[in-house]
Write a structure and sequence with these properties.
alpha/beta; Rossmann fold; five-stranded mixed β-sheet; 47% helix; binds NADPH dihydro-nicotinamide-adenine-dinucleotide phosphate; oxidoreductase; NAD_bind_Glu_DH; Glu_Leu_Phe_Val_DH; Glutamate dehydrogenase; Glu/Leu/Phe/Val/Trp_DH_dimer
């Protein structure tokens, strides 16, 4: 804490992981002797840079750019870029740290990183977004590469932004290096199912957890937060598997649609129109918009928080428990506070932490890298099958590690332990670096 003052999100992520791997450390003194923990909590490299750009009125704007290359013991750095006004070094470090274990869990040979900017894309014109992305990439380009560091999207960075970033990378380097970014368009090196992967993956994970109790998502009501990439495709997969998602949200409030979310309308408003969530209720008679209040007070058996970190506190968890929740899968990164996780676990609710439940996105990014390297294109069906198999493997690895380290059914311990052991073993084998 004294070494990294004022980094609360990073401390939160560290204490969650370090506490839950105590039983692993107790069985493996060699990790302590090799200084694995001290090395793991220190990013290998942190790049902070200036991003100057010109807005539509001709005024000069300056934002701050970040890339935290956390750990490359298992493969090239890999992790998304976030454009949001709240972005700071603490958030980048928490996300890069989490990403390291998540990527290890996928079993795909990718290291952990995160990056982004405090740039706010809301209400910016398309031309402003393009100029910002070009300026951001002008500096980032020297730090990334298909075998070095492969960024992708996150909050505020979707297909449009990846397109502008890739265009500028190609222009600066004079290389059509497909593997340098993932989340590309299908026509120019992108992979099938990457857009859907994080949301779909979270639902596959839910289904796996429920199957241990001989149950499934079918016929259950689901409470989903967010209305971005992860939320939309979680809703889509829930509907395909016979569940009924009834909520969505953004930073202005949430909607409840007792008839079940009209996915085409939601996509139209959010993906095509970039509108506020209240527009959904204005167009759908069965829905109501709630501007102040908590989406978690809406009763349902399944919950997928898919907006942002610390969006679900202990009161929210208690409300979900009162509302009959059986299983929670984190679509976002660290959306539940530590107190909320405790409420779920004490109530016997199945709880999947983000690093396991939302790993489908990065796993499919690794499939995109594999296709780029081999100059291949896999079909949607094939890619979705692979995604589902990866989520089943992550579930199995987390479940087995929880048992092995004395916390059966605790997916927080299981996911942290399974990811940690893979990274720690690679670091041990590679010596003091
Ligand atoms: P998007 O930008 O597509 O959507 C984010 C959604 O969350 C929007 O509805 C946004 O509302 C809402 N949101 C963001 N910040 C806040 C906030 N401070 N308060 C309330 N609502 C907020 O992002 P993604 O769907 O890609 O990401 C969502 C989460 O999932 C993040 O935690 C991300 O790190 C995580 N994740 C994403 C992956 C991916 O593949 N995209 C992979 C793994 C994890 P508004 O528009 O009003 O800001």
């Amino acid at each position: 804490v004294s070494r990294n003052p004022e980094e609360p999100e990073f401390h939160q992520a560290l204490s969650e992981v370090l506490e839950s791997i105590e039983p692993v450390i107790a069985q493996h003194p060699e990790y302590v002797e090799a200084g694995i923990l001290e090395r793991l909590v220190e990013p290998e490299r942190q790049v902070l840079f200036r991003v100057p750009w010109v807005d539509d009125s001709g005024a000069i704007r300056v934002n701050r750019g970040f890339r935290v290359q956390f750990n490359s013991a298992l493969g090239p750095y890999k992790g998304g870029l976030r454009f949001h006004p709240t972005v700071n070094l603490s958030i980048m470090k928490f996300l890069g740290f989490e990403q390291t274990f998540k990527n290890a869990l996928t079993g795909q040979g990718i290291g952990g990183a995160k990056g982004g900017s405090d740039f706010d894309p809301h209400r910016r014109s398309d031309a402003e977004i393009m100029r910002f992305c070009q300026s951001f990439m002008t500096e980032l380009a020297r730090h990334i590469g298909a075998d070095t560091d492969v960024p992708a999207g996150d909050i505020g960075v979707g297909g449009r932004e990846i397109g502008y970033l890739f265009g500028q990378y190609r222009r600066i380097t004079n290389r059509h290096e497909s593997g340098v970014l993932t989340g590309k368009g299908i026509g120019w090196g992108g992979a099938q199912v990457r857009t859907e992967a994080t949301g779909y993956g979270a639902v596959f994970f839910l289904e796996e957890m429920l199957s241990v109790r001989r149950d499934s998502v079918e016929g259950k009501t689901a409470i989903v937060s967010g209305s971005g990439n992860v939320a939309i495709y979680a809703i889509e997969k829930l509907q395909q598997l016979g569940a009924k998602p009834i909520t969505a949200s953004d930073s202005s409030g949430f909607i409840v649609d007792e008839a079940g979310i009209d996915l085409e309308l939601l996509k139209d408003l959010k993906e095509a129109g970039r509108e506020r969530i209240s527009a959904y209720a204005a167009r759908r008679p069965s829905a109501r918009f709630v501007g102040s209040g908590r989406v978690w007070e809406v009763p349902g058996q399944l919950a997928i928080p898919a907006a942002t970190q610390n969006e679900l506190g202990s009161d929210d968890a208690a409300a979900l428990v009162r509302g009959g929740v059986l299983a929670v899968a984190e679509g976002a990164n660290m959306p539940s506070t530590p107190d909320a996780v405790e409420v779920f676990q004490q109530a016997g609710v199945l709880f999947a932490p983000g690093k396991a439940a939302n790993a489908g996105g990065v796993a499919t990014s690794a499939l995109e890298m594999a296709q780029n390297a081999a100059r291949e294109r896999w079909s949607f069906e094939d890619s979705e099958r692979r995604l589902q198999a990866i989520m089943c493997d992550i579930h199995a690895a987390s479940f087995a590690a929880a048992e092995r380290y004395g916390h059966p059914g605790d997916y927080v311990v299981g996911a942290n332990a399974a990811g940690f052991v893979r990274v720690a073993d690679a670091m041990l084998a590679q010596g003091l670096v």
